[in-house]
């Protein structure tokens, strides 16, 4: 009995030279297996790749490792494509900025060259943002603000400062706050009080973050400067109680600092003036007591006397007394400044 391959099944069942046996005593599954094996031979390596052979003493290759390599290639390609796209966006931003420079340096017989340049710079800023080049983007938006100010378009200039602040906040909270402060001042000039209040709060947040960063690095002077700018923002919003608290906070931090303690009197004076703006005699007296607690020597200073005289004149409703107190303090302050300047000049002469 033979199959299509010319192999006798009796020979397949003959083991160890024994005489051929009938087919039926053999297990059916074995007969089928041997028969199928010779009809459909095992494919060669050329037809079908063999499975990886485990190396002695080594581990078998992980299942799906080739798939991971195939997946890694598209990811690298996407990264390269993304980087190439960012480079293209920056190049397009450069082109628009150059066109804006040409527009500003040339003559404009039709239309307004500042408006045209602002439009070109706005396109450049968008491409710089797509390229995530925030420094180039914030510089462009500041230029846009300058162009709008040339055309007396204060609302558009304020909006450009807001965009500059959004770029600055990526790497410099202090500069972001300054840009927002410029926007706030412009919104106040055109009577957009709601917009001014909104962006003032944002500026205060950025300044507070900058103050914390300076404070963590031990730069107390810079931290106090940021806090003072926050207080000035609240002064624009006429939130004098918050402004007073901030100035008092600066004074407390400075009183035990050998380099900053000499500025405490001026800071406490600002805190007292904030309370005078509220027009509440009780609040003014309470503020003077807190100032005395912060600096026990404050009661013997000209600043304390000025606040005391101003509070008394406001309580009495005496405008002339209020004016005289301010004039006296102003004359004494200028005299002190002149004496200090003269002493500095004498010291310089001694050194030479």
From TrEMBL:
Subcellular location: Membrane
Bias kind Basic and acidic residues: ranges: 68-95
Highest rank taxon of the organism: Eukaryota
Gene3D superfamilies, alphabetized: Tetratricopeptide repeat domain
GO cellular component: SNARE complex; vacuolar membrane
UniProt membrane topology term: Peripheral membrane protein
Main localisation: membrane
Keywords: ER-Golgi transport, Membrane, Protein transport, Transport
A Pfam family per the record: SNAP
Region (Disordered): 45-95
Gene Ontology molecular function terms on file: soluble NSF attachment protein activity; syntaxin binding
Family annotation (InterPro entries): NSF_attach, TPR-like_helical_dom_sf
GO BP terms in the entry: intracellular protein transport; SNARE complex disassembly
Function: Required for vesicular transport between the endoplasmic reticulum and the Golgi apparatus.
Family classification: Belongs to the SNAP family.
UniProt protein name: Alpha-soluble NSF attachment protein
């Amino acid at each position: 009995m033979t199959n299509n391959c010319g192999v006798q099944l009796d020979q397949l069942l003959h083991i160890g030279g024994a005489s051929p046996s009938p087919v039926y005593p053999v297990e059916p599954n074995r007969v089928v297996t041997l028969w199928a094996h010779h009809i459909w031979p095992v494919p060669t390596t050329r037809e079908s790749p063999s499975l990886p052979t485990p190396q002695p003493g080594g581990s078998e290759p992980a299942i799906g490792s080739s798939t991971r390599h195939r997946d890694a290639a598209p990811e690298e390609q996407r990264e390269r494509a993304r980087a190439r796209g960012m480079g293209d966006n920056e190049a397009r931003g450069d082109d628009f900025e150059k066109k804006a420079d040409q527009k500003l340096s040339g003559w404009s017989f039709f239309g307004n060259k500042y408006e045209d340049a602002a439009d070109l710079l706005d396109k450049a800023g968008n491409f710089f943002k797509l390229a995530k080049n925030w420094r180039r983007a914030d510089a462009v938006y500041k230029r846009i603000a300058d162009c709008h100010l040339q055309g007396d378009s204060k609302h558009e200039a304020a909006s450009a400062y807001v965009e500059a602040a959004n770029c600055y906040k990526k790497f410099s909270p202090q500069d972001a706050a300054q840009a927002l402060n410029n926007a706030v001042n412009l919104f106040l000039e055109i009577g957009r009080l709601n917009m001014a209040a909104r962006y003032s709060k944002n500026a205060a947040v950025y300044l507070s973050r900058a103050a914390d960063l300076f404070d963590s690095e031990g730069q107390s002077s810079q931290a106090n400067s940021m806090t003072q700018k926050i207080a000035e923002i609240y002064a624009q919003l006429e939130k004098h109680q918050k402004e007073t608290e901030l100035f008092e906070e600066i004074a407390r931090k400075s009183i035990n600092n050998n380099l900053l303690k000499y500025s405490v009197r001026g800071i406490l004076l600002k805190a007292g003036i904030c309370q005078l703006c509220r027009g509440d005699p009780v609040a003014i007296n309470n503020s003077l007591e807190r100032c005395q607690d912060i600096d026990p020597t404050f009661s013997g200073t000209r600043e304390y006397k000025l606040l005391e005289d101003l509070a008394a004149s406001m309580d009495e409703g005496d405008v002339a007394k209020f004016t005289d107190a301010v004039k006296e303090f102003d004359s004494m302050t200028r005299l002190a400044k002149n004496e200090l300047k003269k002493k500095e000049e004498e010291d310089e002469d001694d050194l030479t």
